[in-house]
């Protein structure tokens, strides 16, 4: 299945069930907007391929979620607005969801926004679904080394305007923050299946960057 071949009916049914009403944008309108954003030529990593991979992981754990619909909607939106290096990307993505979902249940809307914001990966997640959406978003860290590095190359292409020193120093700071966590993955499901590979990839990449002269700056 290619990047763009996430079945249209999947999103349509989800949106119609959870959001669509006279005050909300239609499923067709919203899906077209998301595919336009995620399918842009500048989207080398945060794109439809990433969403497809997230949905594959979501399908693995759907039965373990408290509100699977909210998690799935949040996965579609979590990278909808993306400007490389902007710390407000998730907030802007959540606001886009709010703008398109006026007719949805207010509790559902707040829940989706909270899940989108969880993908900033700041601090410890304190709810079941936030733990899972964080793990789904970072599941690529548990891929085989070659796949992990290929995805890293795609991410670097999104930051093509940044010089190596700034990009790789920032990368090391982010990786070092992940390394300080008691566990890389927050849910038992992902920890049991992908923790060892993620830790190996993390250590190997940090060692590589140190060898290249890139180290985390002191705060």
How is this fold's topology laid out?
Layout: H1 8-18, H2 27-38, H3 48-61, H4 68-77, H5 89-100, H6 106-118, H7 128-137, H8 145-158, H9 164-179, H10 188-211
Structure characterization notes:
This protein is mainly alpha-helical and 219 residues long. It is built from 10 helices and no strands. It has 2 domains: 1-137, no CATH class; 140-219, no CATH class. The longest helix is centred in the C-terminal third of the chain and has 24 residues, at 188-211. The radius of gyration is 17 Å and the shape is globular.
Sum this structure up briefly.
Helix content is 62%, strand content 0%. It is an all-alpha fold and 219 residues long. The mean pLDDT is 95.
Instruction: Tell me about the largest β-sheet.
Output: none
What overall form do the CA principal axes indicate? globular
Give the percentage of residues in beta strands.
Answer: under 5%
Tally of helical segments: 10
Order of helices and strands: HHHHHHHHHH
> In whole angstroms, how far apart are the ends?
43 Å
The quaternary structure here is single chain
* Helix content percent band: 55-70%
**Strand elements, count:** 0
* Computed structural class: mainly alpha
Supply the number of structural domains.
2
Average pLDDT works out at 95
Backbone CA Rg: 17 Å
- Could you name the ranges where pLDDT drops below 50 across 5 or more consecutive residues? none
């Amino acid at each position: 299945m290619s990047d763009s071949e996430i079945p249209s009916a999947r999103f349509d049914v989800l949106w119609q069930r959870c959001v669509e009403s006279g005050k909300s944008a239609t499923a067709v309108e919203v899906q077209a907007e998301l595919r336009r954003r995620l399918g842009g030529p500048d989207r080398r990593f945060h794109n439809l391929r990433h969403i497809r991979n997230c949905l594959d992981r979501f399908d693995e754990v759907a039965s373990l979620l408290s509100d699977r619909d909210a998690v799935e909607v949040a996965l579609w939106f979590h990278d909808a607005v993306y400007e490389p290096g902007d710390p407000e990307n998730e907030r802007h993505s959540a606001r886009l969801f709010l703008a398109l979902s006026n007719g949805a249940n207010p509790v559902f809307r707040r829940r989706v926004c909270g899940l989108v914001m969880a993908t900033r990966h700041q601090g410890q997640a304190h709810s079941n679904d936030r733990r899972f959406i964080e793990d789904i978003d970072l599941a690529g860290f548990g891929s085989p080394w070659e796949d992990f590095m290929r995805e890293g190359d795609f991410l670097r292409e999104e930051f093509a305007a940044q010089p190596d020193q700034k990009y790789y120093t920032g990368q090391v700071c982010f990786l070092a923050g992940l390394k300080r966590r008691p566990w890389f993955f927050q849910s038992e499901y992902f920890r049991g299946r992908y923790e060892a590979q993620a830790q190996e990839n993390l250590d190997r990449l940090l060692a590589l960057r140190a060898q290249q002269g890139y180290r985390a700056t002191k705060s």
